[in-house]
Amino acid sequence: MSTTTEGAVSGTAGQEEEEGVTLESLRRKMAEFTRERAWEQFHSPRNLLLALVGEVGELSEIFQWKGEVPRGLPDWEEEEKQHLGEELSDVLLYLVRLSDICGVDLGKAALRKLELNALKYPVQLCKGSSRKHTRYSSNAHSRSNEDPSNGTSEGLPNTGLHR
User: Fold this and answer.
1) Nearest CA to 137 among 149, 120, 154, 153?
2) SS3 10
3) DSSP H helices in 6-122
4) pLDDT for 3 beyond 70
């Protein structure tokens, strides 16, 4: 990989498109990008987390005031989709960098979390349901702060990813 005179990352993009981008390749590129600019001094876990939160805010602004948006964004202009891709990328890159600085293998951690969620939300009990995970345990009534009328906590559907 090399950098152009403008400082943009270049080199292996075509090869990675054929093979697919991995978290590891992003981690390496972010580390090199940071090293080339002598930014390691600024990349503490706290600073990276705050930058990540800022980027999530920028991502949120794209959807603010749009109401519900259908999958695939059929009514969006190409320019809007490109902007969305840029903001999603900012979030991903900061997350990858934060996990690297903290010594967390993000891929392994994500797979482990999926395994834990599979145990927490067994298919035979949860399929098609938006109920909170505590509704599936024997102590549900003593621990639950759900709205019993809709089976959700604070009116949000249960995706298994935010609990």
Assistant:
1) 120
2) strand
3) 13-19, 23-36, 45-63, 78-101, 106-120
4) no
C-alpha count within 13 angstroms, C-beta hemisphere, residue 36: 15
pLDDT at 146 > cutoff 50: no
The Cα–Cα gap between 163 and 95 comes to 19
Nearest to 88 by CA among 76, 99, 80: 80
What's the token pair of residue 145?
């702060």
Query: Mean of the pLDDT values across residues 23-49?
Result: 98
Position 151 pLDDT exceeds 50: no
pTM: 0.73
User: How many Å apart are CA 63 and CA 84, to the nearest integer?
Assistant: 9
pLDDT at 40 over 90: yes
- Element of type H or E holding 125: helix 123-126
> By C-alpha distance, which of 53, 5, 6, 9 is closest to 35?
9
